[in-house]
Structure formats: structure tokens, C-alpha cells
């Protein structure tokens, strides 16, 4: 109970500046929408196999991509608070370190939910087929993976606290391989076998596949099961690693 | 209120081992106002980090208000306020929001947190800035906000790490006014680090001097100056060499140096010694042009203790 209250306190602190500046929030959320509309329209013009429309295939991928790039800000914000001194101030209160982490990543999850809702509304007129229950479950799955990604980003920020450039180097180095090897941007079906093998150990691959199934309205099936298991596992490990890192944040 | 025994912190920097704090033994009683004085890198902030539970000690122990900093960190955190060297408030957060959050972090209800935030906004003269993001405040305003954040839960013990660093004299005086008034009202024990000599000299009731991670002196500023430094006499004469020989014969005279026409020496109770020196010089037909007694500063104390000037070390 105390943990829930403390998480809520940190979460409220993180969310408040966003709510106080709705214009900044809208502009921040508009970026992936613009990307999706432009790139998706390009793809729609191409011959697209498999029976699905480009939108049906591409929207879930974009949401994961948004999750990957968006949650960088969790680590970035933590880093500015570490070097600025406001993190130390909070670390000298009785609030638990895990609550400080989960509250922060919770904000990322909320932003992802809001962004994905916005994206779905925007692509509807372009011919995106909405399966409501599947879409809601897909969004929740996205929030779970967002918590995991945000937690890892925070852990990385703590590890890189003595040398901030390291944070960006690692983040950027990981971002593209993760995107390519999860089938977010382009399908892996035609990829060389070594790439497909690597993608099988990338937890994001399963989440992307589950997202696609869910947005297509297929709620049952092994892909969804694997995706949920991957996302939850990823989030749990992320939060454990991140909470451990938070305890060392003032070292 | 504070009790440490053998408190030690060791860092590894690029495979080199650095002993930042070596065996700190310190006792601070309730209600004291103690300044931790030393050059940059002496171990002040590292000591404070350990006492505020931010840094785990390598060895040794410390108790704050009876609670062990390692095994009972949460109890320590409830009882102390900490104002670090940086900015306590995040730059994108509004002033009032941060104060309310701080109250919530200490476990107060939303209503109580808001009430305390408004009280502190009033006492720290931040009311007009309550809805501004903290990053838009001036240096002096941000420092007042930092102090306010450290006081939300009315702690028994307040740690201030270089509280007036980077502030102009007016803002520094204003800050001290707030700190001292709150101390009068709440009876808070205050422990601060500083490398401003005047600050330690005029504000603290007790000065603990630290260098290379060790406490090298611990007393009131008055006694430190009287016992360790003494007054400095300077006489400018027409015969410095002769004047120096005469000065050397003054009982308890130390550090007699010739500097051009001037001769300097250190003695306890300089005002009483100066007439004696002048009579001796007169008797030896040395013509004295000017004579001066300078009261010692804490820099003289540090110089006497370490052979280095604190001003140089701090630079």
C-alpha cells in the first residue's frame, strides 16, 4: 500500500508539468503521427503482399518504435535530475527507490497510451481497420513494454552518470539494431537466416508480432501469448535492474 | 544528534584508490550550529553524503538522532533536511508543485503538504514565484527554494552543503537571515559545509576544520584563532634587519619575517605586545613609520595547521 502511494506521488510529480503545458505535449505527440502518416502513405503506394493493408501492418510497428525512442526521455530526465541535484533531494526522503523508478516509467507508459490513442484516431480515415478490444489490449501491452524500456533507460542513465555521453552512445547504438531485429520497420520474413535467428532472441520481436495480431483482432493464439509473456518478463527484469540502479544513483 | 566513529569513504578513480574521508570521529549535540570548513576536495561533501544516507561508508559507523545511517536509513531520512550543492528543485517543475511533492514524499497528506508548501512560500518570500518553473528563478531565489525544500518536514537536523556558494553578499546575508530565524523558531541543529572563511567565522558557533579527509581542528572560531594563529603585528621601519632581531626577542613571538621595509610577526594578544615592541624599537633607535595589529582569520588558522592557505587551496 505504501509502495502504491509513493509511486503515485512520483508519478503525479512527473505528469504534472506535462499537463501544465498541453501545447508542448501536443507537439511532442505530433512527431510520431507525422512520421506515420508520411511513411505509411508511401508504403500504401507500394505493392503490399499478405492481404493486410500497409496501415494494418505498419501502425503496430510504429507504436513499438515510439515506445523505443520515446522512453529514452525517462533516462534523459533522470540524468538531468541527477546532475542538477533534485534527485539527491528526493533520495534523502523516506520514499522508496523502487517507487521513484516505477513512478517515472509510469509516466512514459501513460504518454505511450495517449500517443497510441492519438495515432489510431489519425489513421482511421486512411483506412485503418479498428478492432476495439484487440486495440485496447495492444495499447496495454505497449504500456507494459514502455515501463520496461523506461526502466532500462533509467538504469543506463545511472550507469552513465559519471560520463553522460556514454548514455547517448549506448542508447543510439542499441536503438537501430533493436528496431531492425524486431521487424518494426520492415518484415523479417525475407531477411537472411542469421538475422531471423537473432531476432528470435529479441524480446521485442514477440511483442511486435503480438501487437500486429491484436490490432488485426486476433486475441487468442500463441503470438499474443508469447508477446504478453515477453513484455511482462521484459518489464519485470527492467524494473528490477532499474530499482537496483536507483539505489546507486547517489554514489 | 550526530555521532560518528571511524567513518571512512574510499573511492576508486581510474584504478587509483582515493581516501576521501579517513576515520571521521565527530559528535554534534542537539541545537548546535556547526561549520565544516576545508578546501575543495577535503572530504566535506563526501562526509555529508554519508551522514545524509546518500553515500554508503566504506567502513566506520554513524548515528543520526540515534539511528544508524546504514541499517536504519529511512528513520534517518525522516529526521534530517538536506540542502545539497545543486538545485533541489527540478528545472521543469513549478515551485509550489515541488514543495507539495516534497511534503508527500515525507508522508504528509495532500492537504497538509499544500498547507506546509504555502507556509514556506510565505516565510521564504517565494509567494510571487509559486507558479513559475524552478528553472526560471534567479540564483538567490533558487537557493531559498532549496532551503524551503529541506524544511518541509521541519527536521531536527538540517544539513547545508555550501549553502551560499555562488551567491552575492546581499543574497548570502538574506539566506542566513532565513536560516537563523528558522533555527530560533524550531531549535534545529544546523550542520553546514563551507569554504567561505567569513561564513564559518561569523555564523557558526563551532568550526570543524577538515583537510585530506581528516579533522585537524575542532573548536569555536575565537579559540581556534587565539590558540592556533595569534595576532599578526606589522611594523615598517628604517632598518628592517635590526627591527627583526628585536622582534625575535619578544616573548612568544613566532613567524618573524622581513618583507622589504616591513617586519611581520605573530604573537598572542597583539594589542598588548605592540606597545612593548614599539618601546624596544625606540630604545634601539629604530625609526618606526607605521605599526599595525591584524586580528587573525580562519585562513591564518588553516595556514598554521597545514602550511597552506585555504584561499589558495580553494582556488
Q: What's a quick, concise take on this entry?
A:
The complex is a heterodimer of chains A (251) and B (315). With 251 residues, chain A is an all-alpha fold.
Which characteristics define this entry?
heterodimer, A: 251 residues, mainly alpha, 11 helices, B: 315 residues, alpha/beta, Rossmann fold, Alpha-Beta Plaits, 2 domains, 6-stranded mixed beta sheet, 4-stranded antiparallel beta sheet, 39% helix, elongated
Can you walk through the features of this model?
The complex is a heterodimer of chains A (251) and B (315). Helices cover 78% and strands 0% of the residues of chain A. Chain A is mainly α. Chain A has one domain (2-40, 53-246). In chain A, helix 1 crosses helix 6 (97-123). The longest helix of chain A has 28 residues, at 132-159. Chain A is globular and about 55 Å long. The mean pLDDT of chain A is 88. Chain B is α/β, with parallel strands linked by helices. Chain B has two domains: 2-225, Rossmann fold; 231-295, Alpha-Beta Plaits (2-Layer Sandwich), CATH 3.30.70.100. Chain B has a six-stranded mixed β-sheet with strand order 6-7-8-3-9-10, with helices on both faces. In chain B, strands 2-1-4-5 form a four-stranded antiparallel β-sheet, with helices on one face. Chain B has a four-stranded antiparallel β-sheet with strand order 12-13-11-14. The longest helix of chain B has 18 residues, at 169-186. Classes of the chains: A mainly alpha (251), B alpha/beta (315). The A-B interface holds A 6, 9, 12-13, 16-17, 20, 80-81, 83-86, 88-95, 250-251 and B 49, 52-56, 74, 77-78, 80, 82, 84-94, 97-98, 101-102, 104-107, 133, 146, 149-150.
Amino acid at each position: 500500500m505504501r509502495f502504491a502511494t509513493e509511486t503515485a506521488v512520483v508519478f503525479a510529480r512527473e505528469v504534472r508539468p506535462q499537463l501544465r503545458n498541453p501545447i508542448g505535449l501536443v507537439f511532442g505527440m505530433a512527431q510520431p503521427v507525422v512520421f506515420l502518416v508520411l511513411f505509411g502513405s508511401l508504403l500504401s503506394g507500394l505493392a503490399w503482399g499478405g492481404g493486410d493493408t500497409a496501415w494494418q501492418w505498419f501502425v503496430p510497428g510504429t507504436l513499438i518504435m515510439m515506445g523505443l525512442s520515446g522512453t529514452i526521455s525517462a533516462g534523459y530526465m533522470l540524468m538531468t535530475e541527477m546532475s542538477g541535484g533534485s534527485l539527491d533531494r528526493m533520495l534523502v526522503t523516506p520514499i522508496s527507490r523502487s517507487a521513484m523508478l516505477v513512478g517515472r516509467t509510469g509516466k512514459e507508459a501513460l504518454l505511450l497510451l495517449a500517443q497510441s490513442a492519438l495515432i489510431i484516431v489519425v489513421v482511421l480515415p486512411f483506412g485503418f481497420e479498428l478492432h476495439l478490444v484487440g486495440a485496447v489490449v495492444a495499447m496495454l501491452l505497449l504500456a507494459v513494454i514502455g515501463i520496461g524500456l523506461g526502466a532500462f533507460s533509467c538504469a543506463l542513465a545511472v550507469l552513465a552518470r559519471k560520463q553522460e555521453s556514454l548514455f547517448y552512445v549506448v542508447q543510439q547504438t542499441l536503438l537501430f539494431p533493436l528496431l531492425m531485429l524486431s521487424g518494426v520497420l520492415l518484415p523479417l520474413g525475407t531477411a537472411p537466416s542469421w538475422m531471423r535467428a537473432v531476432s528470435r532472441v529479441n524480446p521485442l520481436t514477440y511483442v511486435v508480432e503480438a501487437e500486429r495480431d491484436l490490432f488485426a483482432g486476433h486475441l487468442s493464439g500463441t503470438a499474443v501469448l508469447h508477446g504478453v509473456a515477453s513484455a511482462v518478463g521484459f518489464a519485470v527484469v527492467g524494473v528490477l535492474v532499474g530499482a537496483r540502479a536507483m539505489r546507486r544513483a547517489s554514489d | 544528534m550526530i555521532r560518528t566513529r571511524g567513518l571512512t569513504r574510499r573511492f576508486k578513480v581510474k584504478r587509483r584508490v582515493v581516501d576521501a574521508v579517513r576515520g571521521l570521529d565527530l559528535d554534534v549535540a542537539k541545537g548546535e550550529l556547526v561549520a565544516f570548513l576545508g578546501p575543495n576536495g577535503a572530504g566535506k561533501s563526501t562526509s555529508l553524503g554519508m551522514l545524509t544516507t546518500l553515500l554508503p561508508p566504506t567502513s566506520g559507523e554513524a548515528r543520526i538522532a540515534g539511528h544508524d545511517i546504514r541499517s536504519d536509513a529511512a528513520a534517518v531520512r525522516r529526521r534530517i533536511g538536506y540542502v545539497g550543492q545543486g538545485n533541489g528543485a527540478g528545472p521543469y517543475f513549478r515551485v509550489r508543485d515541488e514543495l507539495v511533492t516534497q511534503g508527500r514524499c515525507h508522508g504528509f497528506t495532500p492537504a497538509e503538504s499544500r498547507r506546509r508548501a504555502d507556509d514556506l512560500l510565505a516565510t521564504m518570500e517565494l509567494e510571487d514565484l509559486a507558479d513559475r518553473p524552478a528553472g526560471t528563478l534567479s540564483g538567490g531565489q533558487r537557493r531559498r527554494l532549496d532551503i524551503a525544500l529541506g524544511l518541509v518536514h521541519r527536521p531536527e537536523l538540517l544539513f547545508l552543503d555550501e549553502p551560499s556558494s555562488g551567491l552575492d553578499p546581499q543574497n548570502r546575508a538574506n539566506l542566513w537571515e532565513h536560516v537563523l530565524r528558522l533555527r530560533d523558531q524550531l531549535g534545529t541543529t544546523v550542520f553546514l559545509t563551507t569554504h567561505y572563511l567569513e561564513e564559518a567565522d561569523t555564523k557558526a558557533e563551532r568550526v570543524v576544520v577538515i583537510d585530506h579527509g581528516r579533522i585537524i581542528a575542532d573548536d569555536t572560531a575565537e579559540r581556534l584563532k587565539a590558540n592556533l594563529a595569534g595576532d599578526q603585528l606589522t611594523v615598517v621601519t628604517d632598518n628592517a634587519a635590526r627591527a627583526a632581531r628585536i622582534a625575535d626577542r619578544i616573548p612568544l613571538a613566532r613567524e618573524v619575517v622581513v618583507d622589504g621595509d616591513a617586519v611581520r610577526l605573530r604573537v598572542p594578544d597583539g594589542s598588548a605586545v605592540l606597545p612593548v615592541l614599539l618601546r624596544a624599537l625606540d630604545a634601539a633607535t629604530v625609526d618606526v613609520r607605521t605599526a599595525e595589529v591584524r586580528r587573525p582569520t580562519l585562513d591564518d588558522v588553516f595556514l598554521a595547521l597545514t602550511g597552506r592557505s585555504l584561499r589558495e587551496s580553494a582556488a
